[in-house]
């Protein structure tokens, strides 16, 4: 394993971090505990020492699972545990304290190494300041309950600059991959964090898995330059090449993902000039396609009509990438109409939760109309 040391934080984090958001699940959407426990053990065996979770992941089951499979079975001092406070639920300090206590109970621990305010944006930052959550997080650090404090971020670069200018943060977590580098303004955010001297945790290096399966043109380009690497390994390598990164979180969903990511990161030796040009060419190909930038994070799953927009968007993107309409058409044909876009009541819950700022209510109707036209 490759490690990144940070002298100010006094940390030595594995460059590959374990994300707690995309564990394998059974038919009822429950975490496949046996397989995920093996994945955790395999990662630890290979030297992975950074494990990330959040209150809301896996319908609020991710923290409890880590409590059992990670904290309960491995030496607590041998790994870093990262957890996130759901700012959309913490509307006052009493609620903040209640959720925090519940998180510690679920995790079976009395300290968190990296504590994050989850999915910070302008609105949540202003609210967190007003309520007192930012001071509360600092107080918990002074008490030794949180070792390092930071936030995960989903908004515009200027908002990141504002938040990082507000006070000293130990670290921050941003979305970054070769596609988002300029399309999602990740480069600008990376430069801002570097300017402030704040180390980064990277999320979505493979963009919710979508960069594992790029379209044929991108695939051919990759084969010409790095025939020995899979598209996922090429995506991870882009991020591994950057300075100022503490760890790269990968939401691994099976043992093969864990194995492949361990090999990619542990054997990474830097990028050639030709590889850097390859990423630019891949972005050009992606830019020419009208893809919907959904990462399947499922934050929008609180839809009162149980519309699964990530399924619609993934199947739409599959159609655009491979000219194959079957998955989209079959989904719309076979799914209960009560949970398809015409049932949308325009409550905008989904759009308020979407970190990619997708105009979901409008886009699902377009995707639905397209599916109908393809039947
Ligand atoms: S706007 Fe429509 S799709 Fe979005 S949460 Fe409300 S009902 Fe669901
Ligand atoms: S639509 Fe937005 S919130 Fe929903 S899964 Fe996609 S990226 Fe996540």
Task: Please outline what is shown here.
By secondary structure, the chain is α/β, with parallel strands linked by helices. The chain has helices at 33-45, 57-60, 62-71, 93-107, 122-131, 133-143, 157-166, 180-183, 186-195, 216-225, 231-240, 255-266, 273-287, 309-322, 326-334, 349-353, 360-374; strands at residues 3-6, 11-14, 16-19, 50-52, 80-86, 112-120, 146-153, 171-175, 200-203, 245-250. Helix 4 links the parallel strand 5 and strand 6 (112-120).
Low-confidence stretches: none
CATH class of the largest domain: Alpha Beta
Average of pLDDT:
94
- Computed Rg: 20 Å
Q: Can you tell me the overall shape? A: globular
Number of helices, counting only DSSP H or I runs of 4 residues or more: 17
* Structure summary, number of beta strands: 10
Strand order of the largest sheet: 3-4-5-6-7-8-9-10
Which hetero compounds are present in the coordinates? iron/sulfur cluster
CATH topology of the largest domain: TIM Barrel
Q: How would you spell out the order of helices and strands?
A: EEEHEHHEHEHHEHEHHEHHEHHHHHH
The termini sit apart by 49 Å
Percent of residues in beta strands? 5-15%
Q: Could you describe the largest sheet, including whether it forms a barrel?
A: 8 strands, parallel, barrel
Class from secondary-structure proportions: alpha/beta
Q: Report the helical percentage.
A: 40-55%
Please name the fourth-level CATH homologous superfamily of the largest domain: NADP-dependent oxidoreductase domain
Counting structural domains, the number is: 2
List keywords for this structure.
eight-stranded parallel β-barrel; alpha/beta; binds iron/sulfur cluster; globular; TIM Barrel; 47% helix; 375 residues; two-stranded antiparallel ribbon; 17 helices
């Amino acid at each position: 394993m490759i490690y990144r040391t940070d002298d100010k934080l006094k940390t030595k984090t594995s460059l590959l971090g374990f994300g707690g958001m995309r564990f394998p699940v059974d038919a009822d959407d429950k975490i496949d505990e046996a397989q995920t426990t093996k994945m955790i053990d395999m990662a630890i065996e290979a030297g992975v020492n950074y494990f990330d979770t959040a209150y809301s992941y896996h319908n609020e089951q991710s923290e409890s699972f880590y409590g059992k499979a990670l904290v309960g079975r491995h030496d607590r001092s041998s790994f870093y545990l990262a957890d996130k406070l759901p700012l959309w639920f913490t509307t006052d300090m009493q609620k903040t304290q209640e959720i925090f206590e519940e998180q510690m109970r679920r995790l079976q621990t009395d300290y968190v190494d990296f504590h994050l305010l989850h999915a910070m944006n302008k609105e949540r930052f202003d609210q967190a300041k007003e309520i007192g959550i930012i001071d509360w997080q600092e107080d918990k650090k002074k008490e030794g309950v949180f070792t390092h404090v930071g936030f995960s971020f989903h908004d515009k670069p200027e908002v990141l600059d504002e938040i990082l200018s507000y006070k000293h943060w130990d670290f921050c977590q941003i979305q970054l991959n070769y596609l988002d580098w300029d399309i999602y303004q990740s480069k600008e955010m990376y430069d801002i964090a570097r300017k402030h001297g704040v180390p980064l945790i990277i999320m979505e290096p493979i963009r919710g898995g979508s960069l594992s399966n790029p379209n044929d043109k991108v695939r051919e380009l990759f084969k010409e330059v790095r025939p020995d690497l899979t598209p996922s390994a090429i995506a991870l390598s882009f991020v591994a090449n950057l300075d100022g990164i503490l760890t790269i979180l990968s939401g691994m969903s099976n043992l093969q993902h864990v194995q492949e990511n361990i090999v990619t990161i542990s054997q990474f030796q830097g990028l050639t000039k030709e590889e850097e040009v390859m990423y630019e060419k891949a972005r050009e190909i992606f830019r020419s396609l009208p893809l919907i930038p959904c990462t399947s994070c499922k934050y929008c799953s609180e839809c009162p009509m149980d519309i699964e927009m990530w399924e619609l968007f993934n199947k739409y993107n599959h159609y655009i990438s491979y000219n194959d309409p079957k998955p989209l058409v079959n989904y719309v044909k076979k799914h209960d109409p009560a949970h398809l876009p015409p049932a949308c009541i325009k409550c905008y819950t989904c759009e308020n939760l979407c970190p990619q700022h997708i105009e979901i209510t409008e886009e699902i109707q377009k995707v639905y109309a397209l599916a109908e036209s393809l039947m």
